[in-house]
Amino acid sequence: MPLLEISKVTHRFEGLCAVSDFNLVLKPHELIGIIGPNGAGKTTVFNLITGVYRATEGSIKLQGKDLVGMTPYQITRLGIARTFQNIRLFKELSVLDNVRIAHYGQIAYSPAEALLHIGRFRSEEKRITNQALDLLAIFKLDESANEKAKNLPYGLQRRLEIARALATEPTLLLLDEPAAGMNPNEIMQLMDFIRWIRKTFSVTIILIEHQMRLVMGICERLVVLDFGATIAQGLPAVIQENPKVMEAYLGQEVAS
Amino acid sequence: MSSIKTIYHNLLAKWHTLTGHKLFWPVFMAAGLAFCIAVDTFDFVDLYLQLILIYVGINIILTVSLNLINGYMGEFSVGHAGFMAVGAYVASLLTVHVCPAGAQNLFFPLAILTGGIVAALVGFLVAIPSFKTRGDYLAIVTLAFCMIVKSVLENIDAVGGPRGLLGMEKLTTLPWVFFWTALSVWVIRNLVYSNFGRGVLSIREDEIASDLMSVNTRQVKIIAFIVSSFFAGIAGGLFAHALQFINPRMFDILKSTDILIMVYLGGIGSISGSIIGAVIYTILLEVLRPIGIWRMVLMPLMLVLLMIYRPRGIMGMKEARMFTPLRDLVTEKLWRQKKKEATDATP
After folding, report:
1. Domain B22-345 of CATH type 1.10.10
2. Residue B79 — φ and ψ, nearest 5°?
């Protein structure tokens, strides 16, 4: 069974068609990329999958379960986590709390137990804190666990955002422009990092990216969007040669 | 200069070890309660001073509970006086009309509790529009709520209409105020340092991201509003039985503004700040009473200065260490990890 099945999804903002007739079938453990020029509707696809927007038409199924109409937190608990194009950490909170918040759905005590700090409260807090610190240690962020997220350098903020997304224990991870603001050297490291995440946490990954170097280097399959329409889908090497894609990126050739 | 600094640091360290002791809070609470009972029975403190202490307690409850919404959750609610009115009227009606004569003292805590519960139910109803609105819009919704409560009370003759309600005995004593204040501070601190409290904070930081990180924002908002309005109702009941007279005008937007001032003076998102804000504001208002109308010039002026030099209030977003529980969970684990790494590296 496919992990994610998006069929004929269309989304309109007041007449503007942001995404039209989008189809995608994702097998477990795939790593695919969505590319396209600015304003092509890439982030809208993520927002549709995670429930920030409700698809006007079509269906999105995760392991056979229809996601359209669910709220974002329900979808996240089913196993889809994401990062954001412009980092959206909880800036004033500590690094540790950023990760602990992502464990929200996994805590088993009731509001009454929380108000009185009784019952399962202490053991659950301990479990979650240790789990969060373990995750931070894997990402080499445990040293700054008590620091405010906004005080981290840019690169570490990106890393923290991925750690936070993984704390929700996803099966599908959506990365929105993870290489934004990185130099070629850092992009090489990021490629290894993403491969490593996929292996260690056994997640399926969709990533949105502008950086061709990154996308061509690690994606097994690509979807190219332009003005909301899917103009090409397939292997990176094939996509590169596709005239439609070149046209979308470079413009039409003038007939001589 | 440096010697003063070392003395200060030594004192601070001593203070932290003292407040960090596991018997500190039980002993502090027992001593406080014993003192309040002693004052109440032997009357060795001036009655005027007692009344001020009662108001300080009530204002602490109001400030801490409003801080949950305005400080920790980052919403802007101006309807706190409305919840207070609900608690005040429910508790007063119960003690005046329902309570059998002679059982007032026994019945009083129940009446206060009922006032709080009814206020919490109303808080639940106000939470629903807050799912849709934020910031300025929520301010308008809560402002409307405050006005609705006032005009409803003014138009029901059974509760005295605009003339108000009287006939309450002076049941609000110092020990009861101490008990409810301690309870509200403790419960709200517990909430803030729990999963739900982290949810509240994440809503303030970024509501959409919080939703996408599996936080059930609806549930969090409902819990925050219920707890906040519950304690506002409790404070209302205590207020009514301290003053022995209430009318709808006491609970208008100006009362809400008073509470807002205490929140922003003490500092948003801080329990210790709320306590400091409530204490300073209440006492300052009384101390400055002799200068008459100039008080109303001086206080706002101080607020303006505060907003310029400390825009987040005295303790804004900081917390005194004595109010943060569970520190051990974090520090202990970090320490263990460091130690393990060090031993791994040696051979």
Report:
1. no
2. -100, 15
